[in-house]
């Protein structure tokens, strides 16, 4: 009976979703204040619940998400672990409440539950957390007028900046990232600036057992200037402190500073995304000097059926050139989104050179397909291969070979309606001379996933 009631409840939400519903990556960025004058449906009644007859700015909004994903790895880590076929199922559920206490104060809270079933070698750190607080913060608008706005946000919160290269909420994996801390958000005209101090958490797989690290380990400022005729300019400073960071150079405490910028333009016609960053600081008893540069250039054919987009991307990401010189040259991607280089679970944005052509086509207003080829080399032969999270995957083993391998990818995305989306993808990884050199009897990798998401 309980299951039947739940199905009826979800069906009622699905049937009454307002056609204007616009779900965002960060659910706290959604605004349902206009629903006070919308049609009287069940869905609208939970998106805007008035708390005062006299003040329309006092209201409560509810929402949530259910996500189920089937994953199949074959020859994970190119056969090094000897696992072979490894299918498993992951799922994630969230519910949230957005409480507005007037025009200047709001409280946002969100719970998450994430599960993994069937993986031969158990859940990864990105797979499972049975119940936890994902967001719980208060916003206070200290300044709010027609020209400018300054908001103070305090508490547990998600962060996502730029292309997700360095600070991402990490939507791809089952567990999204969050931090505890303080953020100031300022906006005036075409300029906006965020400044923050944050603490990460140690993730436990049980119920409310995650533990904040109790010290600031991420801080910085991210700034955006919109240039109407040419694109958008971003510039940022990011600082981190970590204990027992692991690189091929060794294991030790790390304090790292990142200065970077990004210039990009999306939309019809010529599109581009240029980004570069330099890192300095201290690791163990030595210093850090690392860098990255990326160029993604493409063209969208607006007047052609399907609006095909053709892109060519090239990344250079430094690795360590000499393990004994007291200087760490390995770039640290900080908190990147998973699958930044396609949905490759084996190679991440560290010690890497890649060339990445890809094509995207809209089959219709709801369906999109994309095809990619990614050619991957090690930047330095003195450093290894790292995972998408930035953790060390394979050491160099003194191999002089550079080519890691070629990834062939295909993906299909279907927006079923305003609430449901479905996507599936496949990746075949042909190992290159470096993997062939250090793994005996290595095997090409195959990765398949299919995901369905419901949001309200």
From TrEMBL:
InterPro entries, A to Z: Alginate_export_dom (IPR025388)
Pfam families listed in its UniProt record: Alginate_exp
Highest taxon, organism lineage: Bacteria
Alginate export domain residues: 59-437
Protein name: Alginate export family protein
Taxonomic path: Bacteria, Pseudomonadati, Bacteroidota, Flavobacteriia, Flavobacteriales
């Amino acid at each position: 009976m309980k299951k039947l009631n739940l199905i009826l409840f979800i069906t009622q939400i699905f049937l009454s979703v307002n056609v204007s519903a616009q779900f965002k990556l960060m659910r706290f960025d959604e605004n349902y204040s206009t629903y006070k004058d919308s049609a009287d449906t069940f869905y609208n009644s939970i998106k805007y619940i008035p708390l005062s007859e006299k003040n329309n700015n006092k209201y409560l909004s509810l929402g949530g998400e259910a996500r189920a994903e089937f994953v199949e790895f074959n020859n994970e880590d190119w056969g090094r672990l000897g696992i072979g076929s490894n299918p498993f199922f992951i799922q994630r559920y969230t519910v949230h409440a957005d409480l507005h206490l007037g025009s200047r104060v709001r409280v946002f809270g969100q719970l998450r539950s994430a599960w993994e079933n069937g993986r031969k070698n158990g859940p990864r750190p990105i797979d499972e957390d049975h119940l936890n607080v994902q967001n719980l913060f208060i916003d206070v608008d200290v300044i709010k007028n027609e020209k400018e706005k300054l908001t103070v946000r305090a508490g547990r919160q998600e962060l996502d900046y730029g292309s997700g290269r360095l600070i991402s909420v990490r939507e791809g994996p089952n567990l999204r990232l969050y931090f505890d801390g303080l953020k100031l958000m300022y906006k005036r005209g075409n300029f906006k600036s965020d400044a923050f101090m944050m603490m990460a958490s140690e993730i436990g797989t049980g119920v409310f057992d995650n533990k904040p690290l109790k010290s600031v380990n991420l801080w910085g400022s991210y700034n955006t200037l919109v240039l109407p005729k040419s694109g958008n300019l971003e510039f940022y400073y990011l600082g981190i402190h970590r204990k027992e960071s692991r690189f091929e150079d060794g294991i030790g405490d790390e304090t790292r500073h990142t200065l970077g910028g990004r210039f990009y333009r999306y939309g019809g016609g010529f599109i581009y995304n240029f980004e570069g960053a330099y890192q300095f600081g201290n690791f163990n008893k030595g210093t850090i000097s690392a860098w990255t540069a990326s160029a993604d250039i493409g063209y969208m054919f607006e007047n052609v059926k399907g609006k095909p987009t053709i892109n060519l991307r090239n990344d250079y990401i430094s690795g360590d050139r000499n393990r004994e010189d007291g200087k760490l040259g390995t770039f640290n991607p900080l908190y990147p989104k998973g699958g930044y280089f396609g949905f490759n679970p084996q190679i991440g944005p560290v010690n890497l050179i890649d060339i990445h052509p890809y094509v995207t086509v809209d089959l219709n207003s709801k369906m999109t397909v994309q095809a990619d080829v990614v050619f991957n080399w090690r930047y330095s032969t003195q450093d290894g291969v790292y995972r998408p999270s930035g953790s060390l995957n394979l050491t160099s083993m003194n191999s002089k070979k550079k080519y890691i391998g070629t990834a062939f990818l295909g993906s299909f995305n279907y927006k079923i309606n305003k609430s449901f989306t479905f996507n599936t993808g496949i990746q075949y990884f042909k190992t290159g001379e470096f993997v062939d050199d250090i793994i005996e009897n290595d095997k090409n990798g195959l990765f398949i996933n299919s995901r369905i998401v419901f949001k309200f």
